[in-house]
């Protein structure tokens, strides 16, 4: 597939306008970052012959190759004149990583308009201005102005992020990194003067690496087009979105921040999202939590959850939270069949209760977890499994993680959690890296399980049988 | 103050029945842990003369001192015979840290009854059986059977924890440790054959070290007594509680777990908690989050929140979440006065919007945070401050933490958050250690702010003007 947006997300050649040799400059951070990519890099700066050991071009017109992408790392005032040279050189796409445009008032707005007018006249596509740009662990294209040493980047995976806000963009990348959520591409839209969420969604819809798309928006570039496009994407690929500015106060704040126009009836947004299969999140934590579940697991065919864990009290809280209407999962605790109970009785200790929650007690061992998972997964009355894995009990050891690898074939979606502090967080990360969407919080885990059920309901509604695999990794 | 429960929580002398010299035995973990306490320790085991370098007594009757506390670390079957000797020796209190009693069925129930009957005849109080016992960083009394190396203990502080579930007890301690929440005492009630939450609440009500009490219960030992007692405590000291088993499924799970009788109308629990000023939490994360806020901050006099941060998009999400009715804080974004806006204009960059959320932008510096905090705290229209501290911007450095120390005098409650991944978590921990209740999640931070407002409403309702200090640390 060749797509216009390949010049942005998979460029073969990149010029850095305003490349610098001093390490405290954005133009230097960018050269260093991009040298790690597979693209061919062309620093441009009239004052230098060599930057980071490679040739620096004095003028973009000196660059011998066709350019897919130019990154403009110059103050706003200087950028128009330089962009003209970029566009005249036939560069297919430009990213403006600096601020000082329409977000700053009338003068900046005029500057931005001049740039876009010229870009359109030459057929150059523009990301931004006022954007962190693009990061992809797959292509190693990284135009973020904060170096990776200061702001850790997530590993490669199947989640694509799109953000209208730079701070939310950075925050989501750092959160994804600390939660071991792998991403395919992340794109900052900035002032969205040209390239919008619509362009990006079109590209990502057909991108084989991307299994789920997460979106942070404060306004829509074209609400109707978004909904129509989403309708064609969500049957095959889930979209989770925040539409911030949903209250009066949030809307005022969004207006100061990205110039988003006032809240156009948040109920309408709700309805349109629902109708087009977009799952709505209300903060960055939910956005990543839900996207994580949808990226790693297929939908749940029903709302009956089996809980497997070793901590009795946590099982009680989980049962409450799973079934609660107001605050909670609005799901059901599965009723285990007699055959399941009999099979469990052969795996568990004599004193363990044979119910759901399945309580492995403090005598839990890795092989008991494995036995219980296999038995419960075969119960026709169970739609998904909540695995609460605690490593404290004396018989537990890391061999449980070897078993986890085999649970991909169990045929039911699994969500994971672990209770406690730092040990629990480490356990959650290990489960996550083995392909089970995992959360250091019971409520976040159950809310994400709910989303797998919502996804199943949506696919059933539109008559789509959904994916045949339940554990795509 | 001398209290019967001092023998449990502040013992001067402790016997360990079933002390052991092999490091894989509970009886050895206990000796080692308790040697760190300020109490005098008497290991008891007929087979040893010396354990961990101190004299081991063959019989409890050989111990020359009066004993405040005995810890029975023997299998259930052996413990009755040994307990008779303990009670006959006049020990004031005993903790049974082993399982195998009423939670195991009729035989264990009978055993437990015999123990309690004998204890009552001798005036010995009993914690448990089937409890992890007690942990206090203040007295260094630590009867938890999982060594601190495997299960990190929190530092000293002002939060008391009481749990009917052992696993929730350990989980809360580990969570408190990883969140830098300091605790005064934590008590596991176990089967609650004698000492109950009522005894503990009475003690903690008058304990000067404890500023907030968090409670995990699956059933009430005496619901009416609890509510009456709570009414006398909550005007001076907040109580946060989980009553698990609130749904049919949770109630069934609680019945298998602690034998809690079926859910006696969860609406009644809700009403009784509300009436007696107990704040209800629905999972362990909420329990600690709310208790953390109430321990470190005084109540908020109103619902008007000012947000100070440097990340525009996060400010928009925060505004939404603060004002949302269904999912959200059900609070209000404060309207800043003209005087506040004018003062802010002298501190912030020219391009920063002068509104709430106060957006320090990527140009934020420690002194701007300090200036904004002082200005906003003086606004009569602001009841509390949500501080979103991000260390990414280039001008930010650790000097901001020196400023934070001075914010205790600002006269308004503050809750803290930071957005992103590992750096955000480290920032949150630093704020927390400086006395600002802080959360690595916007929604958890705002929900906790809501609780400070709920506390203020409750105190107003009962005609209590509340604490004069807003930042007790």
Number of strands of chain A: 19
Beta-strand residue percentage of chain A? 15-25%
Counting helices, strands and paired strands, the structural category of chain A is: alpha/beta
The level of helicity of chain A is 25-40%
Q: What is the straight-line distance between the termini of chain A?
A: 24 Å
Radius of gyration of chain A: 25 Å
Using the coordinates above, name the CATH class of the largest domain in chain A.
Alpha Beta
Oligomer: homodimer
Offer a quick outline of the entry.
The first copy, chain A, has helices at 6-9, 26-35, 76-88, 106-122, 166-179, 197-205, 223-233, 248-258, 266-276, 284-296, 312-323, 338-347, 366-377, 399-406, 422-433, 442-461; strands at residues 13-17, 40-44, 50-51, 54-55, 69-72, 93-96, 125-127, 134-135, 156-163, 183-188, 212-217, 239-243, 279-280, 304-309, 332-333, 358-359, 384-388, 414-417, 438-439. Chain A is of the alpha/beta class.
